[in-house]
Specification:
By secondary structure, the chain is mainly alpha-helical. It folds into two domains: about 60 residues; about 70 residues, no CATH class. About 55% of the residues lie in helices and about 10% in strands. The chain is built from seven helices and two strands. Helix 1 packs across helix 2. The longest helix is centred in the N-terminal third of the chain and has 26 residues. The protein starts with 13 loop residues before the first helix and ends in a 7-residue tail after the last helix.
Length: about 160
């Protein structure tokens, strides 16, 4: 759960999520155009911005209807998955960038990995939320290595 609460005092204040909901409600199209900047870390000094990546992000966001986009913010920020994570009984790899501006690593993977009995966290220094696009080769290598180490008979080389 990312929301600041008595159980999560270091979380994000509700006003931040209210602002996101307002952005979706007022102008969903512009919201997704703007969100692509922090999603891929393109708002950081020296970032090499790909207009192609930004352009491909927009239709993905727009495919979600307004109610779905609006209510997704609540579900992703206010749902406490603690008990569900504790029940996971398979090896689990968490991959997250330490410069994730969408889902702060301290409120996500750093907590989740402590709750999953067979969890492992791979932190990508300086990486954004959209690292499956910006660092796809590294993500694919790490996923393959994890799968081969956990279930080598299921992954052919």
């Amino acid at each position: 759960m990312m929301l600041k609460s008595p159980k999560n005092p270091g979380g994000t204040p509700i006003e931040v999520f209210d602002g996101l909901r307002k952005g979706v409600q007022d102008d969903r199209s512009q919201f997704f155009r703007d969100l692509s900047m922090p999603f891929y870390g393109y708002n950081r000094p020296g970032a090499k911005i790909s207009e192609g990546v930004r352009g491909s992000f927009w239709p993905k966001g727009m495919m979600a209807g307004m109610p779905a986009a609006y209510f997704c913010i609540r579900a992703s920020s206010e749902t406490d998955m603690t008990e569900d994570l504790k029940k996971m009984d398979v090896p689990t790899l968490f991959i997250q960038g330490d410069d994730d501006q969408i889902v702060p690593i301290a409120d996500a993977s750093e907590i989740a990995v402590t709750l999953v009995p067979n969890g492992r966290l791979e932190v990508y220094k300086g990486a954004p939320h959209g690292l499956c696009t910006t660092l796809k080769d590294r993500v694919n290598r790490d996923l393959l290595a994890f799968a081969q180490s956990e279930v080598p008979s299921l992954v052919s080389r």
